């Protein structure tokens, strides 16, 4: 948390020095200060901050890729005369334990076209999803667990 606050502070200092008070200057300042902090951290000091920031970027681009692929798949199914969709309800077992992790995963699933988070089981062990393309439940479960959930847990856990 200390590195994150220091990174934010240095990004704001960057904005003040450059007299640029917009989002782009903040992002540039954040990236420059992140690089400076990563290069100047004491050797042997193990911190999860740099791993988490990297994991967050990986998650963002993976999620963006998943959205683009899902949009193309749904659009193709809508514009072609034959429908390839096989909708079904899928119960995905969760490794995510905290409410934040479950909420983020459910929202990312819902934001991906062709899938919708319906509910979480009472014991918080299953995420109930409506999938537009679910001919094989194990493939849908594996895609979510090895993709979104795994990358999300790399961000939220040490």
Written account of the structure:
The relative contact order is 0.13. It is elongated and about 60 Å long. It is built from five helices and three strands. The model has no long low-confidence stretch (mean pLDDT 90). The protein has a three-stranded antiparallel beta sheet with strand order 1-3-2, with helices on one face. The protein folds into two domains: 2-40, no CATH class; 49-156, no CATH class. It has helices at 2-18, 23-40, 49-79, 99-111, 137-156; strands at residues 88-93, 115-120, 126-131. With 158 residues, it is mainly alpha-helical.
Report the mean per-residue pLDDT as an integer.
Answer: 90
What is the percent of helical residues? 55-70%
Number of domain modules: 2
Counting helices, strands and paired strands, the structural category is mainly alpha
Note the overall shape. Answer: elongated
Share of β-strand residues: 5-15%
SS elements, strand count: 3
Described by strand count, sense and barrel closure, the largest sheet is: 3 strands, antiparallel
Kindly report the spatial arrangement of strands forming the biggest sheet.
Answer: 1-3-2
Q: How far do the termini sit from each other?
A: 12 Å
- Continuous helix count: 5
Low-pLDDT segments, ≥5 res: none
């Amino acid at each position: 948390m200390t590195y994150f606050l220091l990174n934010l502070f240095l990004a704001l200092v960057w904005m003040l020095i450059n007299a640029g008070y917009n989002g782009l200057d903040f992002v540039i300042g954040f990236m420059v200060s992140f690089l400076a902090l990563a290069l100047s951290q004491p050797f042997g000091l193990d911190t999860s901050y740099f791993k988490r920031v990297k994991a967050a970027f990986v998650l963002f681009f993976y999620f963006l890729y998943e959205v683009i692929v899902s949009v193309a798949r749904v659009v193709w199914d809508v514009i072609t005369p034959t429908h390839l969709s096989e909708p079904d309800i899928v119960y995905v077992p969760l490794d995510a334990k905290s409410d934040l992790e479950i909420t983020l995963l459910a929202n990312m699933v819902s934001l991906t076209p062709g899938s919708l988070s319906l509910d979480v089981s009472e014991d918080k062990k299953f995420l109930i999803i409506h999938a537009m393309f679910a001919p094989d439940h194990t493939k849908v479960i594996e895609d979510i667990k090895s993709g979104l959930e795994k990358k999300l847990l790399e961000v939220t856990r040490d």
